[in-house]
Amino acid sequence: MARSFTSKAFVAAALLLAACAPSPVGPGLEALKGQNIRTAINYLGYPDKKQTIVGDTVYTWSESGGYTSSYPITDYDYGEFEIDGRRGIYTNTTRNYVSEYNTYNCKIKIATDERDVIKSTQASSSGGGCHVYEPAFEKLLMDFGIPLEATQ
Questions:
Q1: In what helix (H) or strand (E) does residue 99 lie, and over which residues does it extend?
Q2: pLDDT in tens, 53-83
Q3: pTM, rounded to two decimals
Q4: I want to staple 29 with a disulfide (CB 3.0 to 4.6 A). Which of 38, 44, 52, 121 is the partner?
Q5: CA 148 to CA 152: how far, in whole Å?
Q6: What is the Cα–Cα distance from 61 to 68, expressed in whole angstroms?
Q7: Burial of 104 (0-12, 13-18, 19+ CB in 10 A)
């Protein structure tokens, strides 16, 4: 009888745990409401786009890209055999590497009133794209005295 095990489950579990890490983006956007747009620009840098919609000014920050990640897949085979009446045990380990191309994007929109006061915020992300803004929002929350743990 032969059996085969693989490290695929381990890799999937590691990726799932990484996705559960708390993000400061949402709490940081909430903290910006009621602030002047210059506060957001001080933390996030200049926006990529500015437009007027129904009397509000909407500022947009965008980030996108891609990367290749590689990880090993290890298969372990073992079993028993019998040849010409002689019995034995065999083991075999095979390691292959799988590469995947991953993409990410993030769009942060901040709307202000006629006095440049932030009235609404919005973020959309895929592939963890807003991770590039996390250090800026961590600093913002720290400067505002809001602990990240309290925002969970």
A1: strand 86-112
A2: 999 999 999 999 998 999 999 999 999 988 9
A3: 0.68
A4: 121
A5: 7
A6: 24
A7: middle
